[in-house]
Design goal:
CATH topology: ADP-ribosylglycohydrolase fold
Radius of gyration: 18 Å
Order of helices and strands: HHHEHHHHHHHHHHHHE
Number of domains: 1
Number of helices: 15
Number of strands: 2
CATH class: Mainly Alpha
Largest sheet: 2 strands, parallel
Strand order of the largest sheet: 1-2
Shape: globular
Distance between the termini: 25 Å
CATH superfamily: ADP-ribosylation/Crystallin J1
Strand content: under 5%
CATH architecture: Orthogonal Bundle
Helix content: 55-70%
Length: about 325
């Protein structure tokens, strides 16, 4: 159970928790950078231009520099800073961090994200109204800091923390369901990787059973959209059909569509399971150095804050 708390950080370090936490954060970033090159392309277009896309080269419709990341990673780091600075998950701190990030004129911003941040900027409200049309992937792509900060908390606390950050921009029950499936999968991998894989697939299957929108079929999900069920079908298929970090990332980004986000989410999940050492060095070397360092540093800060290491409840303030 997630509520099991060991006596000290040393209990986990030899078992690789730090490696898996940093691997998940770096996996998110390299998945973002790898996938951004082929975002909005179809599998056939990718095949024609690259054969198989497997290197971080930049370019794409955003004309990125090699190793540059997009909003997936940038918003994750903004969220993580807000959690660390507030000493917990605080809605207003998160809103302000997202507002500050948007003022930097980022290279890419989703429409739902922009609308939520502008609402906070204009009205000061940290939570949007429930809207079934806000079931995009923008809240899930950035949620890893909450996954780490809530590691060791009970399920209710994990859900509250995740929803606080999500509902700033995406307040849709359908998106919440997918978000919690990803959270539980990633936390299982972080805590017990030897036994996690089957449990992670069972969580994905359970999500499909509970929601008709998340039906996982044998049909290959290609050119996935930003609608979260489409995104997660591609992610879960690639995760289940491969047996390593590199293979999983290459598999999912070559499906095209919203490839920076499918790459980021799968990179997070697979990084948590396989650890930092499983990420190809050519990808880590290509990743923007400032982003690389920020992911590693913030992973440690969030772990130190989490109940699994601090032995203190996570503060969640709405």
């Amino acid at each position: 159970m997630f509520a099991l708390v060991p006596k000290s950080r040393a209990h986990f370090e030899p078992d690789g928790l730090v490696s898996r936490a940093q691997g998940a954060y770096l996996g998110l970033a390299v998945g973002d950078a790898l996938g951004a090159t082929v975002e909005f392309m179809t599998p056939r277009e990718i095949q024609s231009q690259y054969g198989e896309h497997k290197d971080i080269t930049g370019g794409g419709w955003l004309k990125l520099k090699p190793g540059q990341v997009t909003d997936d990673t940038e918003m994750s780091l903004a969220l993580g800073d807000a959690i660390v600075n507030a000493g917990g998950v605080n809605a207003l701190s998160i809103c302000q961090a997202f507002d500050d990030w948007l003022r930097t004129k980022p290279v890419d911003v989703g429409n739902t994200v922009r609308r939520g941040v502008v609402r906070f900027r204009t009205h000061g409200t940290p939570r949007g109204e429930v809207d079934e049309f806000d079931a995009g992937n923008g809240a899930v792509m950035r949620m890893f800091p909450v996954i780490l900060a809530s590691l060791g908390a009970d399920r209710v606390t994990v859900a509250r923390a995740a929803e606080v950050q999500a509902h700033v921009t995406h307040n849709a029950p359908l998106a919440d369901a997918g978000m919690m499936a990803v959270a539980h999968m990633t936390q299982r991998a972080l805590l017990n990787p030897d036994k996690a894989f089957a449990d992670m697939l069972a969580t994905a299957h359970e999500l499909g059973v509970r929601s008709k929108k998340y039906i996982f079929t044998k049909k290959r999900e290609e050119n996935p959209s930003g609608f979260l069920p489409d995104t997660l079908r591609a992610v879960f298929q690639s995760f289940s059909r491969t047996d390593g970090f590199e293979a999983a990332l290459i598999e999912v980004v070559n499906r095209g569509g919203d490839a920076d986000t499918t790459g980021a989410i799968l990179g997070m999940i697979a990084g948590a399971l396989y650890g930092k050492a499983a990420i190809p060095k050519r990808w880590l070397n290509a990743l923007d150095k400032n982003i690389h360092q920020a992911c590693e540093r913030q992973a440690l800060q969030l772990l130190e804050l989490s109940p699994i290491l601090s032995e203190k409840p996570l503060r969640v303030e709405t």
